[in-house]
Amino acid sequence: MVSRVRADGLLERGRPIVVMYSGGRDSTCLLDVAVRIAGADVVGAVHTNYGLRAAADADERHCAELCERLGVQLDVRRPVRPEGATSIADGRRAGNFQAWARDQRYGAAAELALARNADVAAGHTRSDQVETILYRLASSPSRRALLGMRAHDGRLIRPLLPFTREETANYCRERGLRWRDDESNESSAYARNRIRHELVPALERAHPAAQANVLALAEILRAEGDVLDELVASILDGHDEISLEQLRGLAPALRRLVVQRLADGAAGEPAAGVARRADEIAALSEHGSASLDLPHGVRATARDGTVRFGRTPRPNTLNP
After folding, report:
1. What is d(CA 130, CA 218) in angstroms, rounded to the nearest whole number?
2. From CA 207, how far away is CA 201, in angstroms rounded?
């Protein structure tokens, strides 16, 4: 495993890294691999204790003990829980809580990485990749949703993406590394858990190569996506606007891609769902000015036959 991760170049000797460390098997494997490749002196770890599980404090102590053993500096965050969240297995709030928890741990890791000029490493595996793609297939009608997680996404790296959950567990056993199991991973309150325990086994019963085929499809779509990105770039030719006449003349699929690229640029992040409004945007009047508010706080404005994208102005709450 170490030789494969080193060959991929995501971790390098002496390059600072902040590991998102939960104490589970995947992040435990990642932390040890990071120390072996980069060196303990440039590896930091961040653990987020939400205080919502009976074992939360024991998990924190476990993380502290292993970091001390490996010579890694550990930063522990204890965010204030959202109002009314008493259990992470509370199905009524599961989705909202997971989004909040994710923001907390990624925000903490990004803060540390910025201070250290480091990358952030997450312990996502090949198994997680399959579950992510299946979840997005069910929840988002978008080609981009099926591309899965990237091994390198800005400061965020995922060195364990080539490996399965079973392989990270075997690595930990071989290295004598204990990990903590999170009982919430068994809860059916979360869609991800239902995919892991119900959908993936069902697909494997339908075809033994189901997981491999899902990943192969994602690879194909990523390669094709690169070609489409080049085509969109050639159409826009470095501009952040397009004439309505040109937009209307594009094939519907290409029109959606162009609109999505412009919306993403205006939002500064993926503005999911805007592409589905491409025909409405193309139908804006060429005369005078017209605008259309879109998902993710994006507004399309047509003026004198050209459409541009920007942020939707915030309402003025000072005036009634």
Report:
1. 9
2. 10
Residue 38 near residue 15, CB atoms below 8 Å: yes
- Single-letter residue type at 89: A
Strands ordered across the beta sheet of 289-294: 241-243, 306-311, 298-303, 289-294
CATH number of the domain that 293 lies in? 3.30.465.60
Token code pair at residue 318: 């000072």
Same domain, 190 and 249: no
Domain containing 87 equals 2-206
Q: Rounded mean pLDDT of 189-205?
A: 91
Torsion angles phi and psi, residue 90, rounded to 5: -75, 105
Residue 84: pLDDT over 80: no
First to last CA, the chain: 62
Radius of gyration of the chain from its Cα atoms, rounded to whole angstroms? 23
DSSP assignment of 178-213: -----GGGG-TTSHHHHIIIIIHHHHHHH-TTHHHH
Local confidence band at 229 (pLDDT 50, 70, 90 cut-offs): very high
State the pLDDT at residue 95. Answer: 55
> What b/e string do you get for 11-47 counting C-beta neighbours within 10 Å, with b at 16 or more?
beeebbbbbbbbbbbbbbbbbbbbbbbbbeebbbbbb
Question: Cα–chain-centroid distance for residue 134?
Answer: 14
Look up residue 143 and give its amino acid.
Answer: R
